[in-house]
Amino acid sequence: MSDALLTARSQLLAPAGIADRDLESVLGTLLGPRLDYADLYFERTRGESWTLEDGIVKEGAYSIDQGVGVRAVSGEKTGLAYSDEIRLPALTAAATAARAIATRGTQPRFKPWLVRTGGGLYDPINPIETLGADDKVALLLAVDAAARAVDPRISRVTATLSARHTVMLVAGSDGTLAADVRPLVRLSVQAIAEQGGRRESGTAGGGGRHGYAWLSEAGRAGGFAREAARQALLLLDAGPAPAGPMTVVLGPGWPGVLLHEAVGHGLEGDFNRKGTSAFAGRIGERVAAPGCTVVDDGTLARRRGSLNVDDEGTPTRCTVLIEDGLLRGYLQDRHNAALMGVDVTGNGRRQSYSHRPMPRMTNTYMLAGPHDPGEILASVKSGLYAVQFGGGEVDITNGKFVFSAAEAYLIEGGRVTRPVKGATLIGNGPDVLTRVSMIGNDLELDAGVGMCGKNGQQVPVGVGQPTLRIDDLTVGGTGG
Asked: How far is residue 20 CA from its own chain's centroid?
């Protein structure tokens, strides 16, 4: 039996006196006539956050949330009921409510337990307990000092330290019995620089499935602070961004968020099953330039988007979505995969026990190519070099996107020259990857800050890419 399963049983089931036979009984009740599948999802999450502003810890929060979600599936219909009490009567009541929603299907039989485990991608620790309260405050004060030490023009620093510890257990009518213990930490830093009545801000941060010690190792926390200050100071000297179609070079790492939004969401199975994605029905077709290979990989050790098992108990894996420019597949949860008649990919994710699972990304990135980043920049006579992104929007039905560049420079005569601000990248997801003309050999993943929203649910994710040259991409700016 896995350590995660022992932990989940002791923390989630044992206090309420719930045994495996009780799980079998509830699932048996659910699996009456006209139901295809059912599962029980137990979860307990502890969270904390500390926010320092102007050298003072001004906000602090600690939370505990636990409960159970009961799902009944019949054809395309899903019934979900949940309770914030993990007790057998509440579980039975939720099962009755969930089953009442479903009205079609066969009468499957409950199967013997099959314990599913993932690959031990992170230590099953409680990150909240890895650092004392005084040391957490000291870490935030050190971040504040590091940012201000960069330049006297840094007038304000805000830093937020947060952690989550989630214990989950899922029991399915197909015999699935899986558990996971998930740590997650994050440090976010914002620095504001002022000069001559002008004020600019920069942001940086990182995290992953670690304890707090990871932030202090190799000077990471101080590095994030200095990076936020650097970005803010850079923007004080930035001029207006040009506008119009031009060659755009995207830097490695976090700019992969454009790939996540413009392409990744469109490759989630539910949108394609319903025909609402611009990629629907295009398996095997060319959707990107030769050399472009995009994967979603939930098996990367200690990454923010990684999971030993997804929220349906399926071990995660590396799924090839686009291979050498050709569309190879979609991201699938259990329900959607069954409706499409394809394999699950370990991408069933939910925000909490009170939400239903759906196909979601984990760590989505493009593989490296053959070109040196310097070679790519030198190939551009005139264009834009976008190093960091801010917010963005995408319309899944047609793939149109708009992204703001938080850090960008002009490229003139093959050289990176002046910083510019106010640049937005405008395009179409299914089209933008066909315009990729050079792929760098410098694949990077983001520092570990990403959150992804879909249908009102937020889950942590990772993104990444190498340096990319994209031809004739529309740039919205404030200059001529």
From this structure: 33
Regarding beta strands 239-240 and 244-250, do their DSSP bridges make them parallel or antiparallel, or are they unpaired?
A: unpaired
In the chain, DSSP finds a helix count (H) and a strand count (E) of 11, 25
Burial, 112: exposed, middle or buried (Cβ in 10 Å; 0-12, 13-18, 19+)? exposed
Q: Which two tokens stand for residue 6?
A: 């022992």
- Alpha-helical segments (H) within 352-475: 373-378, 429-432
| pLDDT tens digit sequence for 394-405 | 887 788 889 899
Decide if 324 contacts 291 (C-beta within 8 A).
yes
CA pair distance 422, 404, nearest whole angstrom: 7
Cα–Cα distance for residue pair 225/221, rounded to 1 Å: 6
Q: Give the H or E element holding residue 99.
A: helix 88-101
The three-class DSSP label of residue 36 is coil
Q: Do the bridges between strand 363-366 and strand 462-465 make them parallel or antiparallel, or are there none, so unpaired? A: parallel
Antiparallel, parallel or unpaired: β 415-421 and 239-240: parallel
Calpha distance 224→215 (Å, rounded): 9
What is the per-residue pLDDT across 342-358, written as a single tens digit (0 to 9) for each? 999 999 999 999 999 99
Query: Can you give the C-alpha Rg of the chain in angstroms?
Result: 24
Residue with tokens 């990684």: 306
The model's pTM is 0.95
Tell me the HSE value of 18 on the side-chain side, using a 13 A CA sphere: 26
327 burial level (CB within 10 Å; 0-12, 13-18, 19+) = buried
Which one, of 401, 384, 406, lies nearest residue 255 by Cα?
406
Q: Which of 209, 216, 64 is nearest to 135 (CA)?
A: 216
* DSSP per-residue letters across 337-369: HHHHT----S-EE-SSTTS--EE--SEEEEPP-
Query: Cα–Cα distance between 86 and 109 in angstroms, integer?
Result: 25
